[in-house]
Amino acid sequence: MTETGVRAEVAARPDSGESRWAAMISTPEGSPRWERPALAALLAGTAVLYLWGLGGAGWTNQYYAAAVQSGTLSWKALLFASLDPQNAITVDKPPAALWVMGLSGRLFGFGSWSMLAPQALMGVAAVGLLVAAVRRWSGPAAGLLAGLALALTPVAAMMFRYDNPDALLTLLLVAAAYCTVRAIDAEGAHWFSASTGWLTAAGVLMGLGFLTKMMQAFLVLPGLALVVLVAGAGGFVARLLKLLTAAAAVVLSAGWYVALVAWWPADSRPYIGGSSDNSLWELAMDYNGLGRVFGNGGARPAMPSPPAGGEFAGGFQGFGSQAGLTRLFTGELATEFSWLLPAALLALVAGVWLTRRAPRTDRQRAALVLWGGWLLVTAAVLSYMSRSFHSYYSVELAPAIGALCGIGVTLLWSRRADFAARLTLAAMALGTGLWTFHLLDRTPDWLPWLRWSLLALAALTAAALLSAAGFRRAGIVIGAAAVITGLLGPTAYAVETVAQPHSGGSPLAGPPRAARGPMRAAPATDPLLDDLLTAAGTRWAAAAVGASDVSAIELRTGAPLLAVGGFSGHDGAPTLAQFQRYVAGNEIGYYLVRQRGGDERGRNGGDAEGSEAASAAGPAGNGAGGARMNRVERSAPDGPGAAGENAPGPESAMGGSQSMTRERLGPARPAAEQSDSAAITAWVRANFPVTVLGDLEVFKLTG
After folding, report:
1. E-strand spans in 616-671?
2. Rg of the chain's alpha carbons, rounded to an integer?
3. pLDDT one-digit tens code per residue, 400-414
4. Closest CA to 215 of 311, 304, 291
5. Over the stretch 79-103, which tens digit does the pLDDT of each residue have?
6. Which of 409, 422, 457 is nearest to 145 (CA)?
């Protein structure tokens, strides 16, 4: 039933008093007078929430921030999303989100605000588009409730203030859903019509979603395609042709960049980080695609698995609980997004039942198909994802949860004269209150009064919803209480999320929680090291295994660094031969090795060989006694130097310290089994002098 039909049905009831109320709040055009002020207040409030204190948010994820900085210094780095402005290797995601942040940095100057402000504005735009999409089929109240739920979801409040690609991805997916709604509403049952144009626009947006986060964008496609087949105008063949046109738009809007990378000479562009064969297609299908869902594929090294506590050494949190049907309801993942998930599922079931006899093109059922398909498919994939799951992936569920809650609540509210509808509303209110109590109990020392107050309010609201007499006297008050019951918990978490700084590769929304495993302190800033790198005068001031130190130093000094092995240290770039050529050409000033012992394994993403190389012997332990800087120098061993020709092996070069390493790490691996990063580290150790600054070994590769 459309919005007009619902209002006419309610107004016709003699005992509801709704006719007088509708006349009082409606404009001559039929829209309620409160709609535009309410929408303006929602968007303004969302902007304040997401932009507040953004300048003090820091770099958030330094890995992507360093790539944004590189994009402000080099157009090629911006095009390929290179981690360094000298274009050695890209980040492990496609570049669309970094294009937006990089262009903002070029326009306003690179900094935390210029990088994160576009992310926050994407959040405001996503809320506005969700309101518009839901409103067209379910009315203004449903749209505003959906937008409010999205804006106040804790993981959304975090990711729209973060430099991960998920902000742009969420905006593009909501925009694609809006275009799909417009396509179904557009006139013309034939292929050559406005409906096809809107679907083509949705396909372009989905293709841009692929260029933002690859296969994750396609999780919503089944819901969008199904609603076109179920509720679209025209015969089945016409609807199928429109979908094929949209699919072609997806391929073209994403494929041009895949083709560009494939055709660009590999030796004049950066290595595609995260891939095993320097291919964007392989990155999409394995690391950011089916391999992430089903497990390892090809010859790629295994992704790390979290320990029993769910966290790597070093505080790399958020990989979620074990894969399975209950994953989204357990652990800290649940507090990220699931506050309204039980209500959304109940609303979906109730809505499907109420519209079971509706015509094929019924808009309320179409809305349930679209957003229900989005929710169920995405939730199923995230629940069973086998490799490298992060809790913030759940932000993709937030628009569908908000839409279903808005649609279901207003649909049931329009039938509140029936006891069954009031019973369902009461179940939603009480179930949400109980679930909110459970989620708030995860942090029992934070606002302990809130969970008890909301539980009591939920019980009172459910009792009032069951009372027909109470409805006639205070229906608006009861409805407001139900909304407060559902939204106050996530609102408190969202506000706390905004108030706290977040950083790292897998942040958690809400109040701070005790660490679940051994935490590694952030590397200390060393002015001497910064001065050395700033004055290096080489193509890359330094190189280091993995992106952790590289990203931090690049952001701190502005000097370009080479991340050996990409993000985790196990990508195949550069190879030992390439690295030796760079050194022979005096293109790298220094080589940095962080002395972290067993902790290095977590930093390098589980690459055992890279871990061994990075924690290999040398003056380990020096500088650990608390001094800011403890310089220990070792001369280069005899034998060939930087050119790398016939370089001696690690054993002959490292002498006694190498034997100490053997005792700690066991027998040396054959050279053929070493990763590129391990081979590079061993070669550097064998041929170059070292200076120890605190817990950092600095090998001088020039001069």
Report:
1. 633-634
2. 28
3. 999 999 999 999 998
4. 291
5. 999 999 999 999 999 999 999 999 9
6. 409
